[in-house]
Amino acid sequence: MNDPLLAPAIRLTQFSHGGGCGCKIAPSVLRDILADTPFASHMAAAYPDLLVGIEHGDDAAVYKLNDTQAIVATTDFFMPIVDDPFEFGRIAATNALSDVYAMGGRPLFALAIVGMPIGKLPNEIIRQILAGGESVCKQAGIPIAGGHSIDAPEPIYGLVGIGVVDPRRVKQNSGGVAGDHLILGKPLGVGIYSAALKKGLLSADQYAAMIAATTQLNTAGADLAAIDGVHAMTDITGFGLLGHLLEITRASRCAAHVELARLPLLPGVGELAQGGHITGASERNWASYGHEARLAGIADWQRALLTDPQTSGGLLVSCAADARETVLEIFRRHGFAQATEIGRLDAGSNVTIVA
Description:
alpha+beta
């Protein structure tokens, strides 16, 4: 098997200006684009069975069918974060299905979203990308039932994910309660790793850790949703831990207190961040929402850990104190050995991060 860190004949990342969830539009720009859109203000009244729309930036839409069933629908796609086409497909598919799990749902099937520079990428490379995505869906127990493809200047791959959830068990980012414990399911640092990878400074062990994290399905979500003490849930992606935590605090009308020392990190991420291996998306994230956070004793490189865009990141759970051990046990049972309590929700409206 070839060493994934050696330069392949064709580097997928050379075709794209950004990779993974670092491609996401900056939060402040996205808010400006969506401000005052007609479908934002009239959706709830016009469609009473639409349980979750775009109101709070939740991970997926949820539409009630009956008292025990609701459809979860989401879409996610991006440009390559790694050069290996099969692994790119796996990462993109895992990331897309995460939004179904984050709502407490179980995936039913997927549709592929494919944009490829035809004539520049060999067909075999494109087939490997699709095979990577299919392998993840097979692991999730669902088919890729169709999709759509276009000839595009940059490689784009992702999925539409369709799932089902009991409408009484839907978990949003708006349900947090003051006093809740905050538990994070996966280690942080994927964006920092990707920046180091582009410069040839990521070790083989770190690359393996990156692939393992980004291709681990967030299957714990459905079981977590069944716990009454789980009040809010989201997954950490392109806006970084701080950005998605802010979505919870805004929607839940709470404050948050997080201890930096508790954050689970991929191996060597701190050293890479101190060496300046930080993505442009991390800086855009901070520029978008940094004014909403108070950092106590946090250096710039540590701040980058908070704003680092995660691709296929972990679930962030807000739960009652008496549900804490159950939540951690569910994470462990699903293979999330680094799931960690990182802080709590408080009364108020500020997010405070302490060293």
